[in-house]
């Protein structure tokens, strides 16, 4: 069996992403299956390896081949059902993309906790700035209100002084009025018929 016969085969109508994925899966699978060596089995079954080494190697080769066929069969089904169409759609999207080229996408740094803390710091700084602005606005509003209250108190004091002056003036007028004798004109008292 040649290397071309082993693994997932690529068709001429497949996109480069699917071909690359199949090539990577083939290489990874062969690397994993390549770790199953005769020496490993011989360590596990030393008496069988000494008495019948060829049979153990035949069993190993058969098991590897059966496993290989089963793995590739399952991967082929999964790729056809779940992966081929999305990869083709991704290729189509990247071919028709009209946005800026060469932009590097944002990637989080290796430490997620630091990334979240950095984000939290920015949010907290923004919130602190907004709260400081609110506090400053309320302080200015309080100062303006205090000035109005102070002006109102001064106006009340001024009005009180004017009221006191008017009161004194009215009291003097009242005192003068009390000193004027009141004369009651004499009138003819009648029974009210001659009116």
**Low-pLDDT windows of residues:** none
The domain tally reads 2
Order of helices and strands: HHHHH
Overall radius of gyration: 52 Å
Q: Overall mean pLDDT score? A: 84
**Percent in strands:** under 5%
Explained architecture:
This protein is an all-alpha fold. It has two domains: 16-96, no CATH class; 111-180. The chain has five helices and no strands. Helix 1 packs antiparallel against helix 4 (53-96).
SSE diagram, text form:
Blueprint: H1 16-34, H2 38-44, H3 46-51, H4 53-96, H5 112-179
Helix pairs in contact: 1-4
Question: Could you provide a short overview of the structure?
Answer:
The protein has about 200 residues and is mainly α. It has helices at about 15-35, 40-45, 45-50, 55-95, 110-180.
Descriptive key words:
74% helix; single chain; 0% strand; mainly alpha; 2 domains
């Amino acid at each position: 069996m040649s290397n071309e016969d082993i693994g997932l085969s690529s068709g001429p109508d497949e996109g480069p992403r699917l071909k690359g994925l199949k090539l990577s899966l083939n290489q990874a699978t062969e690397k994993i299956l390549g770790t199953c060596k005769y020496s490993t089995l011989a360590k596990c079954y030393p008496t069988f390896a000494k008495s019948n080494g060829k049979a153990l190697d035949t069993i190993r080769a058969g098991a590897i081949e059966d496993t290989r066929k089963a793995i590739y069969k399952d991967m082929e089904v999964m790729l056809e059902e779940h992966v081929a169409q999305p990869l083709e759609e991704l290729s189509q999207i990247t071919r028709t993309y009209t946005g800026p080229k060469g932009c590097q996408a944002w990637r989080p740094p290796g430490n997620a906790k630091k990334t979240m803390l950095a984000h939290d710091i920015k949010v907290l700084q923004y919130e602190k700035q907004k709260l400081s602005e609110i506090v400053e606005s309320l302080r200015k509003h309080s100062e303006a209100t205090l000035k109005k209250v102070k002006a109102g108190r001064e106006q009340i004091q001024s009005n009180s002084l004017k009221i006191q002056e008017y009161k004194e003036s009215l009291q003097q007028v009242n005192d003068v009025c009390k000193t004027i004798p009141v004369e009651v004109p004499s009138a003819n008292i009648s029974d009210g018929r001659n009116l």
